[in-house]
Amino acid sequence: MATSNGTTAPTNAAQALATRRENGGVAQNTIADRIRSMSAEFQLAMPRGAEATQLVRDALTALRMTRNLSKCEDTSVLGALMTCAQLGLRPGVLGHAWLLPFWDRKANSHKAQLVIGYQGLIELAHRSGKISSLIARTVYEGDEFDVDYGIADTLVHKPDLFGDRGNPVAYYAIAKFTTGGYAFYVMSHKDMERYRDQNATARTREGKVFGPWVDHFEGMAHKTCVRQLAKYMPKSTELAYALAADEGVRVDLSPNVDPAESTEHPDVLDGEVVAPTSGPPANTAGDEGWPTTAKPADANGGAQ
User: Fold this and answer.
1) CA angle at residue 59 from 67 to 240, to 5 degrees?
2) Which residue windows are coiled coil (predicted)?
């Protein structure tokens, strides 16, 4: 089977045979086996130069290291990976994207939600060929910061590198275009907290927010600024797809389907906070980091 980059991908039958041989001749039907068997479909979906074997390795690593991901419905995991394939992003690597398990109380099952990382959005923005620089930063109380929304639209940020910078007061993202122009977007810390309260889908049954907005607030704030700034940037098709598919659930596994149209966005991700089994320290600054996963609560409100 020929792929989009001219290489030859194994057929499903050949991949299944290889998987069976790896398992001592016994046919397996685990989510890991299904990921391996989808290699050909992933390759068909991927941008030129990307390799499905790398995506499969990343996915299997995420499966081993993210608690409850192996319990998720197979199609939701594979759908998230198909979107990663189409966008050319690496799940669980480089801050590109994460597969976040959550408990779907309506379906009474675990599902995987695809969360596009801050670095993933930057990667896709650069691929448009129209962005020369895109970065997000945090402003602290001790910093010199001034914004002028006038004819020129200017922003000055001079961080206090030698004193106590204090608490965060604002966040912003700046995009510089290859044409020489630029655009920026600023949100105060209070506005960011209101945005979180209005838009965070990961909540317990009691309505308490959990997950990345709690464990990696700064990273999510930077990502939010980039998302808002994207409205004023020249977008590539891939960036538009990523913005539409972010924090959604996909169960359509076709490599030719628009990921925006095949992704649904759950209103609430019901569960409780579960510490990751591995990943960067919780105090890693400026990085969306390893997502906190969730598992359902039992009848007494405790985690199962």
Assistant:
1) 105
2) none
